[in-house]
Amino acid sequence: MADPGTAETSRDEEFLKYRSPLVSRYASKEMAYNFSDRKKFTTWRKLWIYLAKAEKELGLPITEEQIQEMETNAELIDFKMAAEEEKRLRHDVMAHVHAFSHCCPKAAGIIHLGATSCYVGDNTDLIVLRDGFDILLPKLARVISRLADFAEKYADLPTLGFTHYQPAQLTTVGKRACLWIQDLCMDMRNLERARAELRFRGVKGTTGTQASFLQLFEGNHDKVEELDRLVTEMAGFKQAYLVTGQTYSRKVDIDSLSVLSSLGATVHKICTDIRLLANLKELEEPFEKDQIGSSAMAYKRNPMRSERCCSLARHLITLIMDPLQTAAVQWFERTLDDSANRRVSLPEAFLTADIILSTLQNISEGLVVYPKVIERHIRLELPFMATENIIMAMVKAGGSRQDCHEKVRVLSQLAAAVVKQEGGDNDLIARIQADPYFTPILGQLDSLLDPKTFTGRAPQQVKKFLSVEVRPLLLPFESEMNVKIELEI
Question: Are 476 and 145 spatial neighbours (Cβ–Cβ below 8 Å)?
């Protein structure tokens, strides 16, 4: 039995080293596992098994016993031995070849046969990218679904529109949410495209010429092509890149991270809107019963989830620079200055996208709207917006447009002075009601000031947009729509 003091010391040592908060604090277990060493190195072993099976099928002297031995030990990784071998050999792939060979003595001679390090390294990266997209896509679909429900619920609720963050023509709460959803739908299509266009590096050899495999099969080009096809199929890909250097083109990483960075921009915009609306007290993100907004200001309800999304989204947006720079400096068939960068940038992009989607799902499932506050803000601004309608009503009642315009202009400026200089409420309507000039239309004022007459086709746009563009996009993810997010704060 281990000494409890020793176990406690071992746990404490973890706090003496830097730990990425993306894993220790934020990201989901499935995404953290996707970029884990266990996923990586068990995938290497699976790739060696695929290669051996395909080589055996095409006539190389590999036995079923050797393959069974490899399959039996695929998950039994001695990480300590592998680390010691890497320290000795200064080569991670060969270290794991040795570690795998140690537990597969009968298969030792055929493990990694004809392959280069990028056979396992790059192909594993492509598998991990594919699986990363498969984790993100349902999460993105759920966010869109929750916001679509929100937009439908508030499709008719008038609210102030803002341009330049100044009050503008009315929209509806649901219509504004559709602006968020539209951007997320664009991200959904982009992620689906990037995932669908991923190919396998396949079996290409040291500089991508397949020379080593051509030698193994004694010049038989058909068998080399079939080997490539078989391994690609076993790995779950429909296609492999027809040409590669030692690595797959690093442009692939640009494609993958560009759609994630674009998603980061979308989430940042949405959560910034929520933060601004929280300041106006029109809308709030979920707030737990015992949650504390500020250590000093007990009344505060800070939009911390939205702030987290914005903070992490900024990081995600910047990560696109890494693959852009890496692809630009790859010399000829490859250089190794991509490796250390990709170990950081690829996992961080997917881990960051993962947590901002989980957080945004949590936000979108608990958004709180305050209609009375929204109504009050409309009342303060609507009189100015209604002046054109008032002028038109007076003209219909027989008045002069120019005379009416001047009357409204003077009264509007007086009301604006009350708002801006005295801090009072907008009293334009009271001034109009008190002026005998407007007697012909006093009975129409309520209808002229009905907020719903100022929202145009916003409710109809919401309904059509959700039915035509959004709901069909979510159909492939119906089975995963009920997953809830338990967000750690």
Answer: no
Question: Does the annotation mark 345 as catalytic?
Answer: no
Q: Given this model, what pLDDT does residue 17 score?
A: 86
pLDDT digits (tens, 9 = 90+) for 68-98: 999 999 999 999 999 999 999 899 999 999 9
Q: Exposed (0-12), middle (13-18) or buried (19+): which is 6, by Cβ within 10 Å? A: exposed
- 41 in Cβ contact with 100 (< 8 Å): no
Sign of CA dihedral 357, 362, 365, 367: negative
Pairwise CA distance, residues 246 & 5, whole Å: 49
The size of the chain, in residues, is 489
Task: State the Cα–Cα distance between residues 140 and 29, nearest whole angstrom.
Answer: 17
Please, are residues 100 and 70 in contact by the beta-carbon 8 Å criterion? yes
- Calculate mean pLDDT across residues 34-51: 97
State how far the Cα of 271 lies from the Cα of 285, in Å rounded to an integer. Answer: 10
pTM, 2 dp: 0.90
With a cut of 90, say whether residue 300 has pLDDT above it. no
d(CA 417, CA 439) in angstroms, rounded, equals: 24
Query: Which listed residue (10, 91, 221, 294) is catalytic?
Result: 294
Q: How far from 389 is each of 162, 394, 401, 404, 410, CA to CA, in Å? A: 20, 9, 12, 11, 16
State the Cα–Cα distance between residues 151 and 145, nearest whole angstrom: 10
pLDDT tens across 329-380, in order?
Answer: 999 999 999 999 999 999 999 999 999 999 999 999 999 999 999 999 998 8
How wide is the angle at C-alpha 121 spanned by C-alphas 123 and 70, nearest 5°? 85
**pLDDT for res 291:** 47
> Is residue 294 among the annotated active site residues?
yes
